[in-house]
Amino acid sequence: LLDPNNLTIQSTGSDTSMSASNPFAASANNAILTTATLDAALTGGANVIVYTGGSSGSAITVASPITATGTANLYLVADKGSITVNTGSAISAAGALNSLGVYLWANYLHTAGTPSTSSPVYQADNATNQTISIGSAITTDGGSVELRGANSVSIAAAISTGGGSFYSSYDTSAGGAGTSERFTLDKGGRL
User: Fold this and answer.
1) Which stretch of DSSP H or E encloses residue 55?
2) Among candidates 20, 128, 132, which has minimal Cα distance to 77?
3) Are strands 166-171 and 180-185 parallel, antiparallel or unpaired?
4) Which residues contact 63 (CB under 8 A, 6 or more apart)?
5) For the segment 156-187, what is each residue's pLDDT rounded down to a tens digit?
6) Which positions ≥6 away from 118 have C-beta within 8 Å?
7) Cα separation of 100 and 161, whole Å?
8) Is there a contact between 4 and 54 (Cβ–Cβ < 8 Å)?
9) In this structure, are residues 60 and 24 in contact, taking their beta carbons and an 8 Å threshold?
């Protein structure tokens, strides 16, 4: 039996079953990364990577608001799992001249080490439906937003890139063996 390394990003408690610094990797199920730790890392142009690293269907849940403290890129990578941004758990840039890139990659597979920020590998043989569910606003102040790898993407809150690009790609079949659907809105585009 393969165990998941589910991860919750929350404001309460302490970091549990997580690596101590960026990249932040869950090392056991029910891992916790506090928003204080994550927010402090989101500055100085850093590529901040948070990943489950689990062996089977590991999910990431954003259960509290994330607010960058400077310019940065945030990568949430759920190894063979889903990503959920709960209601009341907005992801926000630090504000004026401090953009935040937000990259949510569900159902991805990396075989060893830290996931690449430039060439993630899609888990094509996962037999379950993995989702990305956005229940709170994402505000990037010029940073890009990218949603990838899920079998479905649900957006129930505003995504404001402030001039950054928006990209969403998902697989339309269960098990990752079907057609990939894409939606791209480049910088300056409007809906």
Assistant:
1) none
2) 132
3) antiparallel
4) 8, 9, 10, 86, 89
5) 999 999 889 998 876 554 444 444 555 555 55
6) none
7) 9
8) yes
9) no
DSSP code at position 3? P
Q: Residue 170: how many CB atoms within 10 A of its CB?
A: 21
3-state secondary structure of 167: strand
Handedness of CA 78, 17, 1, 116 (dihedral sign): positive
Question: Token pair of 76, please?
Answer: 């949430």
- Which pLDDT tens digit goes with each residue over 86-111? 999 999 998 878 999 999 988 776 66
Pick from 133, 17, 141: nearest CA to 81: 133
Measured distance CA(12)–CA(65) in Å, rounded: 11
Task: Determine the 3-state secondary structure of 43 from DSSP.
Answer: coil
For residue 103, the cross-strand partners are 75, 146
Task: Name the residue type at position 13.
Answer: G
Per DSSP, 4 falls in state P
Q: Strand order in 131-134's β-sheet?
A: 31-34, 7-10, 60-62, 83-85, 131-134, 152-155
DSSP classification of residue 88: T
Cα gap 83→2, rounded to integer Å: 19
State the amino acid at position 5 in one-letter form.
N
Local structure of 36: helix, strand or coil: helix
Q: Going by C-beta distance under 8 Å and a sequence separation of 6 or more, which residues neighbour residue 119?
A: none
